[in-house]
# Entry
Amino acid sequence: MSKIKVTIWNEFRHEKSNDFVKSIYPNGIHQQIADGISNVDFDILTATLDEPEHGLTDNVIENTDVMLWWGHCAHGEVRDDIVEKVHKRVLEGMGLIVLHSGHFSKIFKRLMGTNCSLKWREEAEKERLWNIEPYHPITEGIGDFIELPNTEMYGERYDIPNPDKLIFISWFEGGEVFRSGVTYSRGHGKIFYFRPGHETYPIYHNQEILKVISNAVRWAKPQLFREDVCPMSPALEEIKSTGDFGRAGIEQNSEGEAL
# Structure
């Protein structure tokens, strides 16, 4: 069986500018996730914002089965043409896993068609992620809930379309709740948004969080890739109908034949 080709994209800004963040993720959030989900089934590549083409060259995008996306402070710096290429590839079948503050990324907002806004608070409070789809492939090996002792709060209302599946609901110590794990399909691609992962907390060192991400990669693996086009389709059978019905706008000659 061929390996799943995974590209983990990260801004990689906080880890270079903030010593505290660097102490948690010395090689970057992208590398911590790569190390945490590494196994014989995945062929993992990382890419970051400040690389040429943000590390997302045509060759990288075209050879990615599942892309992970983490962004926070520099959403606006992501080139629109790169976003367009990633968007097109999702429609063609590439899986996309959007993490934490990636909810405000250009690519996620483009795919959702909403502003993806939410409430937030950073008070290092406890979070309990309730697993409400225990038989879903993304929650394989996960119990009734995952408890994080310190995290950033995201609260409702979360401006996203109704998901195909609601996988996790979070409760926070301050009282809020949040739809923390949701799935979508767009074109031929599968999308999973997963909330945990603020840069000042060691969320991506948590083995259960890494297990969910690893499961999501397998779930989002494309069943097929199909070019995102809108072709004219020739008839499979002989068309015997007569008259001008359905021929509006087709230029004809004096014999009534299409030109």
The chain has seven helices and nine strands. The helical segments are 14-17, 19-24, 29-37, 58-62, 80-92, 106-112, 207-220. Residues 4-117+180-220 form a domain with the Rossmann fold fold (CATH 3.40.50.880). The longest strand covers residues 119-131.
